[in-house]
Amino acid sequence: MIRAEQNVDHYNLNTVYKFESFFDLSPDLLCIAGFDGYLKRVNPAVSKLLGYTNEELMSKPINEFVYLEDKSSTDSARNELRKRVSLFNFENRYVTKSGEIVWLLWTSLPIESDQLIYAIAKNITYKKQLEEQRNKHLAELTKINNDFKELTYTSAHDLRSPVNNLLSVFELLDVSKISDSETLEFISILKSTTEGLKETLNEYVALLNKNNEINEHLEELNLNESLNEVLLSINSLIQNSEATINVDFSSLEKINFNKAYLKSIFLNLITNSIKYAKTDCLPIISIYSNNNNGNKELIISDNGIGFDMDKVKDKIFGLHQKFSTNIDSQGIGLYLVYNHVTNLGGHIRVESEINKGAKFIITFKN
Questions:
Q1: Which of 108, 120, 133, 293 could form a disulfide with 87 if both were Cys (CB 3.0 to 4.6 A apart)?
Q2: Which residue ranges does the record assign to the Histidine kinase domain (predicted)?
Q3: Total-model pTM
Q4: What is the pLDDT of residues 53-72, one digit of tens each?
């Protein structure tokens, strides 16, 4: 009988020792608090983080250590604990002895018979800092995007007046008095290009006036027709560069998309291919569609100077990001293309090597 009692005592002592070791060595903050709002016991992790001695921590009400803005929510949480309601994933801020603010994530269990609360907390300060940085970056990106939309709207709106004036000149021009065939052809091309520019500007102004109603402007578009409108508007650029443009939309002739966005995608990617052509060979641009297991794709590739993808990485579609010394580069075209695609639920990726051209693969939302 005596031996049995000794075994029980030994077991109890061993259990207490293990509990004490767990309590003292845990990297998480372990606390025992009373229903009276005072700490009764804390492990070393609490003292280490907050910078107070155990005596200091237990000599004042817990709320004295809580950040001012979180005192009310902490009081409410403690009142729930007194009602035997366990607390999970409760976040609040504490102020350390040095004045630093730390975020803690609590799980607390009340024991009414003992008038005690057993609590464990994790330091989530770093996580909160990352969230704050992310939210700050998102706010900055949202502002940049809104500012850019406003600039685009203003520019498109203001450009309509000189374009309309130019079209008025064509109306006043008496071409019957012009006999030179080359001059007549030039006037015809210039008038057609100006009319195309007016249409594009009107589409942008109408689109941006709708703000968040972009999805209402989706329509079934013929890829070949949209491309031809763009090619006509930059016909002189294509001729001067002696670019070869290969087109094949046999796999996918039509898509549901926004007309102004699609024309902008064609315009920016084609003019970029011409702008960044290699000096030792003429530009060759391939434009084709693909229906890959239900994924509708538009692919535009060239034989230009290409990108060093290890260097540009995810910056390639950033606003004002320039990867060439070309004086005409503003770092806006690819930013526009990316936003046109992603705003309507699609995605775009790039395959490229230095001096081996670039391939842009656009996947449209199904």
A1: 108
A2: 154-366
A3: 0.54
A4: 999 999 999 999 999 999 99
